[in-house]
Amino acid sequence: MTTTKSATSRGSIEMSRVSTENYLKAILRLTETEEAASTTALAKILEVRPAAVTQMIKVLAERGWLTYKPYRGVQLTSEGRARAEEIVRHHRLLERYLCDHLGYSPEEAHREAESLEHHISEAFEARIAELMNDPDTCPHGQPIPPKVDK
Questions:
Q1: pTM of the predicted model, to two decimals?
Q2: How far from 143 is each of 10, 47, 85, 89, 115, CA to CA, in Å?
Q3: The predicted structure's pLDDT at residue 150
Q4: Are residues 69 and 110 in the same domain?
Q5: Which residues of 76-85 are buried (b: 16+ CB within 10 A; e: fewer)?
Q6: Domain, as residue range, for 38
Q7: Are 117 and 91 in contact (CB under 8 A)?
Q8: How far apart are CA 94 and CA 13, in angstroms?
């Protein structure tokens, strides 16, 4: 029984990390065209209830990844933006790799990258970037954010 409980706990922690990263990506995307991301827009993009968005916003603000002003929306802090851009970098590098080296269509690559982006190491990211001569864009033509040294 301990094994099951432990596996369940790891699964919950993993889902929480994936969810957190998806929120950061969504906020980054929304704030590319707007000053702040509204909770309504986040709920729509992430396909969750507005109450769930409010709950996660509090968690992300406690971690120092965003600022929230009621009725004005959320903005990423510099730390939150760096984390979101790292996730986007993983996603777009994976898309490029899957298309160029494994023959995926851009749509298939996007779906795979949505899952894989949360699970690759920095070493793996560096290796595929090097293998592909540090590409500038993903297969959809979107820029791949530069590697940020930590």
A1: 0.85
A2: 33, 26, 11, 9, 20
A3: 59
A4: no
A5: beeebbebbb
A6: 2-76
A7: yes
A8: 23
CATH of the domain at 93: 1.10.60.10
| Mean pLDDT, each 10-residue run in order, the chain (150 residues) | 43 67 96 94 95 93 93 94 96 98 97 95 96 97 87
- Residue 137: DSSP 8-state: B
Residue 76 has a pLDDT of: 97
Does any domain span residue 140? no
Question: What is the predicted pLDDT for the residue at 12?
Answer: 46
Alpha helices, DSSP H, located in the chain? 2-30, 39-46, 50-62, 78-102, 106-116, 122-131
